[in-house]
Design a protein that fits this description.
Layout: H1 8-22, E1 40-49, E2 68-78, E3 81-85, E4 88-89
Antiparallel strand pairs: 1-2, 2-3, 3-4
């Protein structure tokens, strides 16, 4: 977004709306009454470097180790509660919900 390749509307469409439609999750990808959208506040001014040490994963490597990044989510809500703030997990474990769907062969 910072480099002008995608405007905000197109970024949201590609990252959320189209992904939800492609994966056949009709209640995901939109903010509306009856939807099940988790919300992200994106900080376009953040600058950092990707590192396995700073990631919240259960392994000791990252394929993008050392890559400089511009922007990151600053606040993430899951099912209506803040789970991430300024790159730190502040929520409750297990708040996410697995959405099952039938396999498709597209």
């Amino acid at each position: 977004m910072k480099r002008g390749r995608l405007d905000l509307d197109r970024f949201v469409d590609a990252a959320s709306t189209r992904a939800a439609n492609f994966l056949d999750f009709p209640r995901k990808g939109t903010v509306a009454v009856g939807s099940d959208a988790d919300l992200v506040v994106y900080d376009t001014n953040y600058r950092g470097v990707i590192s396995a040490k700073s990631q919240h994963v259960n392994n000791d490597y990252n394929g993008f180790e050392g890559m400089e990044i511009e922007g990151r989510p600053s606040v993430v809500t899951v099912r209506g509660k803040v789970q991430v703030r300024d790159g730190k997990f502040v929520g409750e474990r297990g708040r996410g919900k697995m959405l099952k769907r039938e396999p498709t062969h597209r």
